[in-house]
From TrEMBL:
Family of this protein: Belongs to the threonine synthase family.
Keyword vocabulary terms for this entry: Pyridoxal phosphate
Protein name: Threonine synthase
Lineage, highest ranks first: Eukaryota, Sar, Stramenopiles, Ochrophyta, Pelagophyceae
Pfam families in the cross-refs: PALP (PF00291)
Cofactor needs: pyridoxal 5'-phosphate
Gene behind this protein: THR4
């Protein structure tokens, strides 16, 4: 970390400072899987989640804008997670001066290690909030509501760590260019998709000149996106299906709005009409013209859980890759032979700072006010 010589501002040294915690100098290496297949490895950050690529960088940006005097030097981060965004955000923001971070996640619906990553951090500026009887969509809805509340937003100088924050998308664009350089010809990117931010970054990279051939929106049983590309109608299922890929267990993808906006010719009136219809009825249907534009930009498909597990097993047997393959896919005996990743498993034995709240907007507001706003105590006492 250094100071700009002219104004004494806190800035990262040519970006690599932000990635000094990664376990490889390449940051996002590309691994050969055989034949034409390669895997872009985005798990070398401190929390083993792809979102660390953007969130390690974002932590420095927050410090920078506060050094410049934004919001009188205080910023309140509120985010939602199904596991990996929260752990990456907390790791990127922990200990940052002038920043308080509140991460909402569905209680008992993240992995034990992901929860430990969020709750074992001792830094007092980070707060992991588990909402009872919630899914990710519930957490995300509360976050969106708080950002739409202008009085609350202004009072606490809110900042975002979810991919609704444009800086998240900007940081992710870079690794599409990097990966494409590993191929002699334009390649196809198949992107596991939940909140649509990662594949949207790929689309922006393509618009900026990255010569990738196509983008594939890969979804699981929660296939609202795949169904839109197949039918032109955007409608979520009655409820979210819990799967072995929880980061994709999302029914309403925030960044999809941005993509639809571009496919509607950057016409905000058309987008507003679609979103208003969606809010009122729970669905919208794109015009044939705009639907065709969407399909021309991306492909989409869904993969059910048996297929996911079979694919993990196939590639593990073929390449001995996937060191964290799950027991359901490769069997307990095979899993037992995989070396333990002690950086992760040791977290399970650390003291935890877990705050359990009822699933309500008021409970979250009360908790934030109690921590940074001098308000009343949270609606439900925090649990250790």
């Amino acid at each position: 970390m250094g100071l700009a010589p002219d104004k004494g501002l806190l800035v990262p040294h040519s970006i690599p400072e932000a990635y000094s915690t990664f376990r490889t100098d390449e940051v996002t290496p590309v691994a050969p899987l055989g034949g034409d297949y390669k895997l872009l490895e985005l798990f070398h950050g401190p929390t083993y989640a792809f979102k660390g690529v953007a969130l390690q960088f974002l932590g420095f940006l927050f410090e920078l804008i506060l050094q410049k005097g934004y919001a009188n030097g205080r910023l309140t981060i509120i985010g939602a997670t199904s596991g990996d965004t929260g752990s990456s955000a907390i790791e990127g923001i922990r200990g940052k001066k002038g920043v308080d971070c509140f991460i909402l996640y569905p209680n008992n619906r993240t992995s034990k290690i992901q929860e430990a990553q969020m709750c074992s951090v001792p830094d007092e500026n980070c707060h992991a909030i588990a909402l009872e009887d919630a899914f990710f969509d519930d957490c995300q809805k509360i976050v969106k509501t708080l950002f739409a509340d202008q009085a609350f937003h202004k009072k606490h100088s809110l900042g975002a760590v979810n991919s609704i924050n444009w800086a998240r998308i900007v940081a992710q664009i870079a690794y599409y260019f990097y990966a494409q350089l590993k191929f002699d010809e334009p390649c196809h990117f198949s992107v596991p998709t939940g909140n649509f931010g990662d594949v949207l970054a790929g689309w922006y990279a393509k618009q900026m000149g990255c010569p990738c051939k196509s983008l594939v929106v890969a979804t699981n049983a929660n296939d609202i996106l795949a169904r839109f590309f197949a039918t032109g109608t955007h409608t979520p299922p009655p409820s979210v299906v819990e799967t072995v890929t929880p980061s994709m267990d999302i029914s309403v993808s925030s960044n999809f709005e941005r993509f639809v906006y571009h496919c509607c010719g950057d016409d905000d009136k058309i987008l507003k009409g679609l979103m208003d219809t969606f809010e009122a009825t729970g669905a919208f249907t794109a015009s044939p013209e705009h639907w065709e534009k969407c399909k021309a930009e991306m492909y989409a498909g869904s993969c059910q859980q048996p297929q996911i597990l079979a694919t993990i097993k196939k590639w593990h047997e073929k390449t001995d890759y996937f060191p964290t393959s799950i027991e359901k896919a490769i069997g307990a005996a095979t899993l037992a032979e995989v070396p333990e990743e002690k950086n992760l498993t040791d977290l399970l034995d650390l003291p935890k700072r877990k705050n359990v709240l009822v699933n309500s907007l008021d409970a979250v507001v009360d908790f934030v006010e109690a921590k940074v706003g001098g308000g009343k105590p949270a609606a439900k006492k925090a649990k250790k």
